[in-house]
């Protein structure tokens, strides 16, 4: 152990008897351990308070808890408020998850001694109802909290959706009422409802900046309007498309609001043909962009091809588009015509029809496009080179699977990467399909 400390430069060598040695300046670690400790052998028990605290900050919770039992001094440091500002409760059932769960005794100790120190809190649960119920029970006990960030994360569905709405709302009310400083909330796939949002707004309207609540079926457009009307500092909002409305966009465009920076919209359908999606008027989109010129409008699509009819039939100021399922050539053609603010486009699948014309139209009309990703699609090498040539060096991200590219009489794959690299101004290769 002594040699290990010497190798790390943490132990001072034995002082020499010569006068010259006595006049030597202290080594650089003197500023860390202090002059009085330079003359003694350094060991873990004598580490300065702030050094132990820094080490604890990097330790996983279970190791931190074990280290706290080494001595009384380390146990005192274990309970310093700074260590409990950020905490993730991991609540998993052994029968449904391989992940380790936060020990119940430690949870109770945290609630008893550190509830008023917690500021950045998340609950990560597995798919079991028991884990979600445990999260609600903990939330119900945070009566002395001052939380700024709250996240409820399900590693697998349904989890929180299986908790009774009354129990979930009651637990949230405790946090919403007592915190009064919430700025960031993420609660996807939960039974959050309109009355809960009213409580949130009533107590945190001056501080709320980010609200992510996709797949919350008990929230109505009226609930979101309540947030939009009263939370004037709102910067980022994430919701399902079924909640999006002309009224909401106009509310977000009113003069009393601080400019929205990010609007994320999830467009999801679980039952093909059973959901008819409404359209948003161009005037409503225009009002939002006029009020917040730099707003990023991000749309995630998980639809079947026959469900896209309501989208992009007229100009839409979307900036980021992600298609998680197959999207038709006709739909991509509409994007090229009606999405002039587009910055990023990711298409996971299209089918086996070359997209040359659609990509070239997107390059022509979408002058801000800087990122493109194509998965299970087809593009001829000639068409792809033309697309890159038109976009030029502004394409900072270009992720294309090699299988997407169809060699032709003009370009082989070897020549393609040289030609594309020339127009991008950097070395580029297509992505390779993993072999596992």
From TrEMBL:
<comment type="pathway">
    <text>Protein modification; protein ubiquitination.</text>
</comment>
<protein>
    <submittedName>
        <fullName>FXL21 protein</fullName>
    </submittedName>
</protein>
<keyword id="KW-0677">Repeat</keyword>
<dbReference type="GO" id="GO:0042752">
    <property type="term" value="P:regulation of circadian rhythm"/>
</dbReference>
<feature type="domain" description="F-box">
    <location>
        <begin position="41"/>
        <end position="87"/>
    </location>
</feature>
<keyword id="KW-0090">Biological rhythms</keyword>
<keyword id="KW-0833">Ubl conjugation pathway</keyword>
<dbReference type="InterPro" id="IPR001810">
    <property type="entry name" value="F-box_dom"/>
</dbReference>
<keyword id="KW-0539">Nucleus</keyword>
<dbReference type="GO" id="GO:0048511">
    <property type="term" value="P:rhythmic process"/>
</dbReference>
<keyword id="KW-0963">Cytoplasm</keyword>
<dbReference type="GO" id="GO:0005739">
    <property type="term" value="C:mitochondrion"/>
</dbReference>
<dbReference type="GO" id="GO:0005634">
    <property type="term" value="C:nucleus"/>
</dbReference>
<feature type="region of interest" description="Disordered">
    <location>
        <begin position="1"/>
        <end position="30"/>
    </location>
</feature>
<dbReference type="InterPro" id="IPR032675">
    <property type="entry name" value="LRR_dom_sf"/>
</dbReference>
<keyword id="KW-0433">Leucine-rich repeat</keyword>
<dbReference type="Pfam" id="PF12937">
    <property type="entry name" value="F-box-like"/>
</dbReference>
<dbReference type="InterPro" id="IPR036047">
    <property type="entry name" value="F-box-like_dom_sf"/>
</dbReference>
């Amino acid at each position: 152990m002594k040699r290990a400390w010497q190798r790390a430069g943490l132990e001072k060598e034995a002082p020499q008897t010569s006068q010259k040695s006595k006049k030597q300046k202290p080594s650089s670690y003197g500023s860390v351990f202090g002059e009085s400790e330079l003359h003694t052998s350094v060991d873990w028990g004598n580490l300065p308070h702030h050094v132990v605290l820094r080490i604890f900050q990097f330790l996983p919770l279970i190791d931190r808890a074990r280290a706290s039992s080494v001595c009384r001094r380390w146990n005192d440091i274990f309970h310093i408020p700074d260590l409990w500002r950020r905490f993730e409760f991991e609540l998993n059932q052994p029968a449904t998850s391989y992940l380790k769960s936060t020990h119940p005794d430690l949870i109770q100790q945290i609630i008893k001694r550190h509830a008023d120190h917690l500021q950045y809190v998340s609950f990560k649960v597995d798919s079991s109802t028991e884990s979600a119920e445990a999260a609600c029970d903990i939330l119900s006990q945070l009566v002395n909290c001052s939380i700024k960030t709250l996240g409820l994360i399900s590693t697998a569905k349904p989890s929180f959706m299986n908790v009774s709405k009354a129990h979930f709302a009651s637990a949230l009310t405790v946090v919403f009422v007592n915190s009064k400083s919430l700025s960031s909330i993420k609660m996807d796939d939960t039974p959050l409802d309109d009355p809960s949002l009213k409580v949130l707004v009533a107590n945190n309207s001056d501080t709320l900046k980010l609200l992510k609540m996709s797949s919350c079926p008990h929230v109505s457009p009226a609930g979101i309007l309540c947030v939009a009307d009263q939370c004037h500092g709102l910067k980022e909002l994430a919701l399902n498309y079924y909640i999006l409305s002309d009224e909401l966009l106009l509310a977000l465009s009113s003069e009393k609001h601080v400019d929205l920076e990010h609007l994320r919209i999830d467009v999801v359908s679980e039952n093909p043909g059973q959901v008819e999606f409404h359209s948003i008027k161009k005037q409503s989109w225009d009002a939002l962009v006029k009020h917040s010129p730099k707003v990023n409008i991000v749309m995630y699509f998980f639809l079947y091809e026959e469900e896209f009819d309501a989208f992009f039939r007229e100009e839409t100021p979307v900036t980021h588009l992600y298609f998680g399922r197959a999207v038709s050539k006709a739909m991509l053609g509409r994007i090229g015509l009606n999405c002039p603010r587009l910055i990023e486009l990711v298409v996971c699948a299209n089918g086996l029809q070359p997209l040359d014309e659609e990509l070239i139209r997107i390059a022509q009309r979408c002058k801000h496009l800087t990122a493109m990703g194509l998965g299970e699609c087809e593009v001829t090498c000639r068409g792809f080179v033309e697309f890159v040539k038109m976009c030029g060096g502004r394409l900072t991200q270009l992720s294309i699977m090699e299988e997407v590219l169809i060699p032709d009489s003009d370009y082989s794959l070897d020549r393609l990467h040289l030609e594309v690299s020339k127009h991008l101004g950097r070395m580029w290769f297509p992505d390779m399909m993993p072999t596992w």
